[in-house]
Write a sequence for this structure.
């Protein structure tokens, strides 16, 4: 029976681990990131893959840093036939890449060579892409540059956000890996070298990428908001505090005022001027120092004094 080391961390990865277990593969160990403090109370919380692994009765290894670690040697000593990764979050050292007879493969949430890197789902939505998908690929020393084994594309709907697309692509990843893995084990799979002229990157989201630039048009800002929902969340500045925008839509108001100016106020939303005479309608927000709330609740309470002409920056 083919022995596997599975490496993954977030919610995207857990269903893939469950699929491998349900298919009866011999999972020698699950490698994931260390437990991290979560929330305002900083509660030490296991990553979703660890929770799934423990539920399935699987051994868990959690290296802070894989390269040169005792945990790396522990993994090598297990002598897996293949290593399968899905959003693990660390670069694999060459000695691990070279060790398994069937190689190290990765379930990557983009149609490579587009969107190499740690935030392919976020970036595809932010860029307004109409399509994305999953790539099963061999891993190489260079980030997400290995040969492509198989791919499956899906549409990005106009109301998709990162959280929802993560779930969709996790299902696609499960299905594609389930279909592809037998051919890898039998060494009958195809492999295609990536076209380096078509490479784009999706690095982990920076704080600067989270900030709204009101001079951009409303469609671009809507893509930014949904690409950052439900994490890490877009924000702007209002009354000298950070003001998070959890959800918005392209507004109806037309204007010729300075971008960032409030141009319309309704019962359940308000609209802020964006570039090219467009406006962004805010529906789900979080003022500085407050909990997340609907715009309707905001306008009835904390934001009751909001007026047309007020400025977001």
């Amino acid at each position: 029976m083919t022995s596997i080391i599975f490496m993954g961390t977030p919610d995207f990865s857990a269903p893939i681990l469950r699929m491998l277990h349900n298919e009866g593969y011999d999972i020698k160990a699950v490698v994931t990131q260390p437990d991290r403090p979560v929330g305002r109370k900083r509660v030490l919380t296991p990553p979703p893959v660890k929770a799934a692994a423990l539920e399935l009765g699987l051994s868990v290894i959690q290296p802070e840093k894989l390269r040169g670690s005792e945990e790396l040697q522990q993994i090598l000593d297990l002598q897996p036939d293949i290593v399968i990764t899905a959003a693990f979050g660390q670069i694999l050292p060459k000695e691990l890449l070279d060790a398994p007879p069937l190689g190290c493969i990765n379930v990557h949430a983009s149609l490579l060579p587009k969107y190499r890197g740690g935030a392919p789902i976020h970036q595809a939505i932010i860029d307004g892409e109409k399509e994305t998908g999953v790539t099963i690929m061999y891993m190489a020393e260079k980030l997400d540059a290995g040969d492509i084994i198989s791919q499956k594309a899906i549409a990005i709907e106009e109301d998709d956000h990162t959280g929802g697309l993560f779930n969709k692509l996790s299902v696609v990843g499960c299905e594609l890996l389930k279909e592809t893995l037998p051919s890898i084990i039998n060494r009958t799979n195809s492999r295609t070298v990536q076209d380096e002229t078509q490479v784009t990157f999706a690095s982990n989201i920076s704080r600067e990428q989270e900030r709204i630039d009101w001079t951009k048009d409303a469609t671009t800002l809507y893509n930014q908001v949904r690409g950052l929902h439900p994490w890490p969340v877009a924000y702007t500045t209002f009354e000298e505090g950070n003001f998070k925008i959890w959800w918005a839509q392209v507004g109806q108001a037309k204007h010729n005022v300075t971008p960032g100016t409030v141009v319309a106020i309704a019962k359940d939303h308000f609209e802020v001027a964006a570039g090219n005479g467009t406006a962004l309608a805010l529906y789900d927000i979080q003022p500085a120092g407050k909990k997340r709330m609907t715009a309707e609740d905001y306008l009835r309470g904390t934001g009751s004094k909001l007026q047309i002409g007020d400025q977001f920056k």
